[in-house]
Amino acid sequence: FDKCFPEINNKKIDLAVGAIIVTKERKEKYLFSMPYFLSNGRFIVLKGKFQSIDDLKGKVIGTIRGRVYEDFIIKKLGSATKIRAFPHTPDMLFSLSIGQIDAALTDEKPAEYWVANEDKLQFLGPSFQMGSGYAIMAKKSNKNLIDKINQVILKMENDGSYLKIYKNYFD
């Protein structure tokens, strides 16, 4: 995931697609399509280990490298909280399962999958919005391409195909 940004910068790719959260900071450097999905985050912990998100202050929190969660962790839990960035979600969750990290913070939909399929895991606290949604990212010079993508997203919303895809995969 974290390779998308240098690949866009170096013009090796024109677009990056894949749960890219739109933030104010990213909008300063890149151009985004209209959001196509909500971008919520969720903490995952081992069952029974913590009662609230505040219990994570000063602990070790895992997240995926290149995601927007590192700044959020420090703002929410303070600078004494340690962050360990992982290249992939399974690596992060394995570290959680063997006690190398105290909690994992990741996107809500993948978190739902992992909690539903791993008996030892549970959510901690409610989900929370990060940024203004997932969108397709490009260099600022690719405005025409982003405009075309936005037209397709709007067409899919208007003809019902977006909702059909959403219900098939996320409902």
Layout of helices and strands, plus pairs?
Elements: H1 4-9, E1 15-16, H2 24-29, E2 30-32, E3 40-46, E4 60-64, H3 69-77, E5 82-86, H4 89-97, E6 103-107, H5 108-117, E7 121-129, E8 137-139, H6 143-159, H7 161-170
Notes on the protein architecture:
The longest helix has 17 residues, at 143-159. It is built from 7 helices and 8 strands; from the N terminus they run αβαβββαβαβαββαα. With 171 residues, it is α/β, with parallel strands linked by helices. Strand 4 (60-64), helix 3 (69-77) and strand 5 form a beta-alpha-beta unit. A 5-stranded mixed β-sheet has the order 5-4-6-3-7, sandwiched between helices. Strands 1-8-2 form a 3-stranded antiparallel β-sheet.
Question: Could you provide a short overview of the structure?
Answer:
The chain has about 170 residues and is an alpha/beta fold.
